[in-house]
Specification:
Blueprint: E1 3-9, H1 15-23, E2 26-32, E3 38-43, H2 44-51, E4 61-65, E5 68-79, E6 86-93, E7 100-109, H3 115-118, E8 122-126, E9 130-135, E10 144-147, E11 156-158, E12 169-170, E13 179-185, H4 187-192
GO biological process, one term: translation
Family: Belongs to the bacterial ribosomal protein bL25 family. CTC subfamily.
Keywords: Ribonucleoprotein, Ribosomal protein, RNA-binding, rRNA-binding
């Protein structure tokens, strides 16, 4: 599914010009990568509502700039410190034949039927809510499903254990294999089990 919206090429640049745009209900932005950077202006309210949709952050976007289509992904947004206002937005052009890096949301399922919850009296803590992946634009998933139905008490799920869709690779920054979710004992449940088990 491709999300489409319109933008206009922005000629006047600088702080004053951006302020005038915002006053007129417009949002200054830029499309960069694969050629020259293209300053654009967008309808603030339309983008504000799109940004509230999870899928907007992990989708290939089609931006109609004065009739010319730009294919891009969302890279960055600057928000006003206390007002519900986007101040600036950055998009990066993508090439259908080149792999791209993006963070995609994790959707957890099976928590409530896992042995950790049903038998172990645990609560499941979702440590990460997104992971970095690399893939071609055509393979970009809207989200990655994490099945927790087999999780046992005291166990954790690591990034390397997540089943990724075809054509999608995990991108890890830094050392180790980050924990995505873990089953934590609820204090009351652990005590109710009695003193039999040596901790």
């Amino acid at each position: 599914m491709q999300i489409q919206f319109k933008a206009t090429k922005r000629d006047a640049q600088g702080t004053g010009a951006s302020r005038r745009l915002r006053r007129a209900g417009q949002l200054p932005g830029i499309i960069y990568g694969g050629g020259e950077a293209l300053p654009i202006s967008l309808d603030h309210n339309e983008l504000y509502h799109l940004l509230k949709k999870e899928v907007f952050h992990s989708s290939v976007l089609s931006i109609d700039v004065d009739g010319k289509k730009e294919t891009a992904v969302l890279r960055d947004t600057q928000w006003h410190a206390f007002k519900p206002q986007v101040l600036h937005i950055d998009f990066q052009r993508i090439d259908a034949d080149q792999k791209m890096h993006l963070k995609v949301p994790l959707h957890f399922s099976g928590d409530e039927v896992s042995p950790a919850v049903k038998l172990g009296g645990c609560i499941i803590s979702h440590v990460l809510n997104e992971i970095g992946i690399q893939c071609l634009p055509k393979d970009l998933p809207e989200f990655v499903e994490v099945d927790l139905s087999a999780l046992e008490a005291g166990q954790s799920v690591h990034a390397s254990q997540v089943k990724l869709p075809a054509g999608v690779e995990l991108v890890q920054h830094g050392e180790g294999d980050p924990v995505i979710a873990s089953a934590l004992k609820v204090r009351g449940a652990a005590e109710a089990e009695g003193e039999g088990e040596a901790a």
